[in-house]
Write a structure and sequence with these properties.
Strand order of the largest sheet: 3-2-1-4-5-6-7
EC number: 2.4.-.-
CATH class of the largest domain: Alpha Beta
Enzyme class: transferase
Keywords: Glycosyltransferase, Transferase
Pfam families: Glycos_transf_1
CATH superfamily of the largest domain: Glycogen Phosphorylase B
Order of helices and strands: EHEHEHEHEHEHEHEHEHEHEHEEHHH
CATH topology of the largest domain: Rossmann fold
Strand content: 15-25%
Number of helices: 14
Protein name: Glycosyltransferase, group 1 family protein
Amino acid sequence: MGKVNTMSEPKKVLIAGFTENKGGMESYVMNIYRNCDREKLQFDFVTFCDKEVAYSDEITSLGGRVFHIPRKRQSVKEHYGMMKKIFENTPYEAVYFQFNMKPLSLDLFRYAKKYGVKKRIIHSHNTTEPKMSVKDRIREKLADMKLDKYVNYRFACSYDAGKWMFGNRDYKVIPNCVNCDDFKYDTDRRNAKRRELGLENKYVIGTVGRLQPAKNPEYIIDIVNAWTKRDKDVMLLHIGDGELKGSIDNKVKSLNLQDNVRLLGQRSDIADLMNVMDAFILPSLHEGFPIVLVEAQATGLRCYVADNITRDCNITGNVKYLPIDVTPEVWAETIAQDKDIERRDMSDIVRKKGYDIKTLAEEMEKLFLSQI
């Protein structure tokens, strides 16, 4: 695995929609890429952002390429010229679009069809559209009406995400899978990491997500603040970066929570950190099918999430759904009630329920390589 077959070149898939952030969608694709047979199948990536995309070094090490396409508002000529160059130089088995902004996908699918790409796939990862202007909403609607002409596969991370993006059109639910071998609960691993972080005697609440409005980070801080009223020996580990980092830092200081909150930024040791945690929270304003919730459940964490998140996410029975229009004390109290429940590894349950990445990678590989 991972070596280029000298006998015949691997087939190529063009992945679109990556950003500079190591979010759930990027994690989902990279999990597939790492676990597919790269002697048979290779991924190239196209991005519409100016910055270096997430995992760019790893993509290169695995044999993939990253193409930057300027947006039309930057240069119409370069936008279409780069697309033409990409498709003229490489015959692709599939174009797989992972972004929820339909106007961005329309041109790419149009060129894919023009150059004979047989599988043109769009994958919904969300249940609510982002805030946008009236003009952008009109562009979104017009693009939606045209996409049917170019797209022939529709995937969604959940029933709700499919309903939101595709309405009454046919689509297939593709679960967000994880590497179950990585996300095992292990007491030795837990204790070693807790010692490293100086958290041996702390009750650790954790979350993973960008510091952006949709993830509701201010409410997360409020939950921790409510907890400290009952018990000072609590620590929040927040994994993820974003535009609200400055304001969240200020909020932590204003509430004197510097000893109770650690903003860790982007991390590569999420499985280790989830072993450290005692509870996982996700009070998001909206989500598709959060891959971090699958990871957390695999490690046996009890999870407390917003009641707008699909019930399909409750794979292990360890997920509690709570409203986000209640006081943060309600969340703190609910978590505290479960504090003494024994934790055990749930990775085998997650695997048996069909959420192991190795199985998904095999299925996606078959789809990309099929002649249909």
